[in-house]
Amino acid sequence: MAPQYAPSLRSRLGPLLFVLQTGFILIFAFCAEVDSNVNVNGSTFKDSYTDFQDVNVMVMFGFGFMCTFLVRHGFSAVGFNLLVATMTTQWAIILNNVESWYYSGKIRLNMRSLVVAEICTVSALVSIGAVLGKTNPVQLVFIALLEVSGFVLNEWLLLNLLKVRPGNSMMLLHIFGAFFGLTVTWILYRKDSEQRFEKEKVDHKSGLFSMLGTVFLWVFWPSFNSALLSGRSPVRKLECVCSSYLALAVSAVTAAAVSVIFNPKGRFNLLHLQSCILSGGVAIGVSMPVVLQPWEAMLIGFAAAILSTIGFHLLQVGTTIKHGNCVLLLIHPKRALNSRSFLFFQIHMLLAFQCHDTRAILSTHGLPGLLGWLAHFILLIRQCDDHTTAVRFAVFHICTLLITITTSLSMGILTGT
Amino acid sequence: MAPQYAPSLRSRLGPLLFVLQTGFILIFAFCAEVDSNVNVNGSTFKDSYTDFQDVNVMVMFGFGFMCTFLVRHGFSAVGFNLLVATMTTQWAIILNNVESWYYSGKIRLNMRSLVVAEICTVSALVSIGAVLGKTNPVQLVFIALLEVSGFVLNEWLLLNLLKVRPGNSMMLLHIFGAFFGLTVTWILYRKDSEQRFEKEKVDHKSGLFSMLGTVFLWVFWPSFNSALLSGRSPVRKLECVCSSYLALAVSAVTAAAVSVIFNPKGRFNLLHLQSCILSGGVAIGVSMPVVLQPWEAMLIGFAAAILSTIGFHLLQVGTTIKHGNCVLLLIHPKRALNSRSFLFFQIHMLLAFQCHDTRAILSTHGLPGLLGWLAHFILLIRQCDDHTTAVRFAVFHICTLLITITTSLSMGILTGT
Amino acid sequence: MAPQYAPSLRSRLGPLLFVLQTGFILIFAFCAEVDSNVNVNGSTFKDSYTDFQDVNVMVMFGFGFMCTFLVRHGFSAVGFNLLVATMTTQWAIILNNVESWYYSGKIRLNMRSLVVAEICTVSALVSIGAVLGKTNPVQLVFIALLEVSGFVLNEWLLLNLLKVRPGNSMMLLHIFGAFFGLTVTWILYRKDSEQRFEKEKVDHKSGLFSMLGTVFLWVFWPSFNSALLSGRSPVRKLECVCSSYLALAVSAVTAAAVSVIFNPKGRFNLLHLQSCILSGGVAIGVSMPVVLQPWEAMLIGFAAAILSTIGFHLLQVGTTIKHGNCVLLLIHPKRALNSRSFLFFQIHMLLAFQCHDTRAILSTHGLPGLLGWLAHFILLIRQCDDHTTAVRFAVFHICTLLITITTSLSMGILTGT
Over 70: is that where the pLDDT of A193 sits? Predict the structure, then answer.
């Protein structure tokens, strides 16, 4: 049932994990120590710990079980997710503290450094979503580690070049992760033949597990968005939680409405729901620093759900799932051309680059992330009179995209060899 | 696999959701703002947030996955639950703040208003349990919104007529929800033919998901019962949590014991367990304000589990589940008549009204709720010497029932048209 | 589908549960009261409550769903677990407060006494893991109640004879539970014929539920290890959480690596993962009081995962799972003899005692627990100059083992009659 890997995989994966893990232990042995100051960022230990647990639950349950809809990956998706997440979190702890390591010779561990590492892991898990079912575990581990390196580099560049606070640049993980994953899957697609997609059959029986993972993400998303906010300003945290909850609620309702309208039989398409009810959380996460009113959050959730559902529908319109054997085909060029005038961007991407996106991360994370960025942009301009910050923000986002693409291209070459 | 709805449904559900959602956004745009005072009711933001998350987990996981035991509703039960819960919560936020909206022009959002709205949603989800599998999503959304309106009206009447504190009247949600749901299913039953019940097949394969939902409810029930208590009196919260936990533990053991005694093969009936292990939590929730000793809580849990299991057994005694195709039949009149002397109330209800209760909400919520009310009544009389409060309490409960029935009747007429 | 029990079971289980439950209610009625002092052990009510909920989630979801991999026990494993856990927790609350009952006539209930009772329940659930699928519910309840009695007795002896603090002796639950369970299964094995093992078929379809339970344990294990630490020293709690998380992360990666190396086809063996990713948490829990550096925790997790995976592999090497009907056979003596030189201890145990360990508790809890004890021993000697404490610790551990074996033998005789 499980996918057959090349015989050489066995000789590689075990030793690779051993070498990497031993390396991580050595780095921790020489440099890491537990922070003696518990109250980081204005939160007590217990408050930071519940934030950490909520994010941890999202990483392990949410992303792990969300990917169980693939027939041959139901079981191993959870295992791979656990493996990738634990490796990546250790690596992210080290990377995030490189600067303090350089200056003081110590990596300080506290609840905040674990939360930040988990959030970096989320960006890797978003990328993984695009290549799942087409890659072996060795590739997955490499992709995840390189993605996190790129994400931390991106954050460092944004901080040093543009003075963007880490709390804000962190939330760009959806855009970074989605475009990184799409670039990787584009490179892999060009190299591989189409027969490898056969691994990606969708199973409706394990759909409830996938739904379980999605609901875990939905419920704990407000914690995710508010985890990095300082405990010194509980009003800001309250605003963030209320905005996130309302945006998620509105996007769940809207995604259901759009899904029913698109379906010729008037049924809920649960793949739509799974992909699109989270779009409000993604968009509000990116635009959080400037959202002040509840209705702004609701409107962002509304727009994100419509964009996400339409994006998903167009991307999957050619994905014919047959009754008996549910085969995933490529996009029908004719249908795609007809709707070209509707969403030029996606069609262009699909026809020109021919990338293949397993978990629909473009419509789940990429498009709502861009919408959130746009909302951030518009609200920022509306709030401040001078254009300095607006220009700065535009420059900042272009940098993000440039860095994303360069990192993913260089990473793709590494994976290819 | 999924149920076939009338073709007109597609043209109604999508626009209906759009219109309602747009209406909610407009109301929030003109009136809602996030409360600048974070410490509501003596709890810090973080404490209120963990309460909110526990209730949110119960609403999304507990009620969502509890209903997956229906063959054709495994998948869509979770989706419908998500849709109904998000719609209802937004509506409940508005309704609960109508008074402050009237006086100050503002709906204030804080963690407490979200928790109260979620608890109102629970009362709607209880009602939904009776009609699931017999109704389409448009009806479900309408029933839920009208139920919440009735519940908030009921709370307002109790507060203004009888000076019942919202914390106490809130917990009557089990009685209100159960009788509302039963009235609706009675009206629907009279109108529809029996062939519609075919949708309600029970699936033993998805039983583990149903068990998962039940355990979510069981584990977080102490949080649900204590969520509305003031943070200023942690002793009261501790008493509430200990009482709820002990009542739930005792009702789990007792439900298992009664279930084994009833089963001719001496096996656990897991439908019994799923319906009846929660009865202790329901009963203790209603009687919480006057329970002072742990043993009182345990005795209430013991009695609630016996009442709930026997009620479930008598109600489902004619529900023959065949080996191969598990068809749900109507109650055998002969068996029901034989046990008439045992529980006259239920038989009367079934024979006379012929209502049909999918998730057995009468035995899960209705009967334990009434038992909790009775325990409240007895303990109150034992505790105070004068009869003024006792009389007041009796009047108060009669009012609740009257309002419930009138609201549900008027709502049933609305649904029928 | 469900196992057929002897007809006499029905007449026993129901009344037994009723009698035990009534007894518990009577004891609580005469002696228990809710503590009026909420801030126990330096933690506020809310902090203790989140600790309690995390442990409660582990007990109900973790252990409940972890055992669903047995074909005939998928459904009832969760039910039995709920029943055993609720009975055992009530019994443990009474037992843990016998001393205060004796002196002050009162059992005081607070969040800490509930957490301690839940942790005692975990030790019973570990034991239950060895006999699941071979015993009926009456035996399970008896085994669990006797195990908890033995565990509390053991803790009392360690406290009074060796002045071991309860926080430290509590964590020996893995060693106590594992050896207790193995002794019981050894006695049951000698008495019963082999055909009873037929109940123990493994199901790959319900594997995802089993994985869900394992991930619940993995995620909340840091809460479990830190639940008993005083709230007055948040630095100690932070160290404990960081160490536990790192040990669990390392043991997840290492278990995956060893699993791939052992598998002839280079695949993940998910039974390996399920049993072995928790070993780091077990080992670090036992050695927690002396682990000061993160790398020590990581090294312990690394060693525990290797030991656990190799132990599991050798124990299950003869367990041939056929494609079609997956029959669990006994250990091949030949293979076992070949690897005798590798892990003499286990083979000796298997050949000589012929015990049969359903959930592999020896490799999941027993061996990592012993490794944690060894790490505790080594680190203690390295940290202190005098040998008094080292000698005391050795005596203490020998006492634990002796008490474990005597209690389990006496309990086995009780079960046999």
Answer: no
